């Protein structure tokens, strides 16, 4: 197992150190220019996402529910812990490159969701289903590649969507509240299971109620900290910009690194957080009842905006302002602990942050369960869904009680493998994408 883990780590190090970053950033930039900067319509897209649509969605989701489900699957540890590690390893300038990734990534998210809605399938139950697998089958007439992507999605659902999230819950509750991992895993499986067994309508309804509330709550906490640190906010912004563009990244109490590492960790964290280019957000987009692929694509594009452009930026500013104002708070802090160090200056801040981490992880469990369900149905039909749900719920508990170093590495590799068929479909069908 040690040999396999070492090999997987080396592969990930190679892929995520250059080839995939160049591929994804190139894709983001290409579609930004080709579609004449769809980002400029972000305010209109936000308005569309919260405006009730006068249409019969039947059993399908509203556009806001698809957005909430997408955010459920992407918001969470990446915005809190991921930003912390990016700054620790790449310096404050990593926040700038993470932010740029979000800005440009909106065009890629728009493109993949447009194609997903256009080439989706409506089942005999009246539900819409889509994603890169259906794009390959119905748009490119290549079911084997679609099946390959669906298989990767199922594996990713059990990895990044399930076991790693429940493990984060167990570690957070054990550290913050002294809660046994077994109990944390059981409760996480129980809570998520009640929602998962209800199918897409149940998942959508829960995500609509919980995800916006969590996002607003965490954003409010960040804004309060920025207000408390307001005297160093402008110096923090200057430090981020200087570090992003200078040959050396001055990281204060964090690890300084060369410009290449700053760019690498910033871009990689942005890509991991919003998943633009991986294609998973388009699976939720296809569940919308709207017949207009352009409208749904614009709404789905806002997920990247909220996830990376807004929340990752706020998390980063909180960390950097704390580094400047309270440098002593970083003594002995781990790479993933910079956010916790910043929130320690907010009354009850560490408890608040822990609860946010747990709640975000629960919503990720719920959101990713649907993405995996769609992939299972594509591969095995409706007969495979019940077994998938049972295994998924069991794996939530398993993830909470087992060490997951190998799973994390395999998940990174699976995500890398998902990029290639998704991006290939985008370029092969680029003439079909309208904005």
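Sequence proposed for the structure above (435 residues):
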């Amino acid at each position: 197992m040690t040999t396999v883990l070492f090999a997987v780590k080396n592969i990930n190090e190679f892929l995520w150190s250059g080839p995939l970053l160049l591929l994804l950033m190139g894709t983001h930039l290409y579609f930004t220019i080709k579609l004449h900067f769809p980002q400029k319509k972000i305010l209109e897209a936000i308005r569309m996402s919260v405006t009730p649509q006068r249409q019969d969605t039947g059993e399908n989701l509203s556009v806001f529910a698809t957005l909430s489900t997408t955010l459920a699957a992407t918001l969470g540890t990446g915005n809190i812990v991921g930003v912390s590690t990016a700054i620790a390893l790449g310096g404050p300038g990593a926040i700038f490159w993470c932010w740029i990734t979000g800005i440009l990534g909106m065009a890629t998210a728009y493109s993949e969701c447009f194609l997903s809605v256009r080439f989706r399938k409506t089942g005999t139950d009246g539900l819409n289903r889509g994603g890169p697998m259906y794009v390959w089958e119905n748009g490119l007439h290549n079911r084997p590649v679609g099946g390959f992507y669906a298989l990767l999605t199922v594996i990713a659902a059990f990895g990044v969507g399930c076991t790693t999230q429940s493990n984060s819950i167990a570690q957070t509750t054990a550290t913050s509240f002294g809660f046994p991992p077994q109990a944390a895993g059981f409760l996480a499986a129980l809570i998520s299971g009640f929602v998962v067994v209800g199918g897409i309508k149940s998942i959508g309804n829960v995500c609509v109620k919980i995800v916006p509330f969590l996002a607003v709550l965490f954003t409010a906490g960040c804004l309060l900290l920025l207000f408390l640190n307001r005297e160093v906010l402008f110096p923090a912004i200057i430090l981020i910009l200087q570090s992003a563009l200078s040959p050396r990244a001055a990281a204060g109490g964090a690890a300084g690194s060369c410009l290449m590492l700053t760019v690498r960790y910033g871009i990689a964290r942005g890509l991991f957080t919003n998943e633009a280019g991986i294609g998973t957000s388009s699976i939720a987009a296809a569940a919308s009842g709207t017949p207009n692929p352009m409208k749904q694509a614009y709404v789905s594009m806002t997920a990247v905006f909220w996830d990376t452009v807004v929340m990752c930026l706020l998390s980063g500013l909180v960390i950097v302002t704390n580094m400047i104002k309270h440098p002593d708070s970083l003594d002995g802090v781990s790479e993933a602990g910079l956010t916790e160090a910043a929130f320690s200056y907010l009354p009850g801040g560490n408890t608040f942050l822990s609860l946010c981490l747990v709640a975000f992880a629960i919503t990720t469990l719920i959101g990713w369960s649907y993405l995996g369900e769609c992939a299972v149905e594509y591969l095995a039909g409706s007969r495979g869904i019940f077994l998938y749900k049972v295994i998924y719920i069991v794996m939530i508990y398993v993830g909470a009680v087992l060490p997951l170093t190998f799973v994390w590495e395999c998940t990174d590799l699976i995500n890398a493998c998902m990029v290639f068929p998704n991006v290939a479909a985008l370029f092969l069908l680029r003439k079909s994408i309208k904005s």
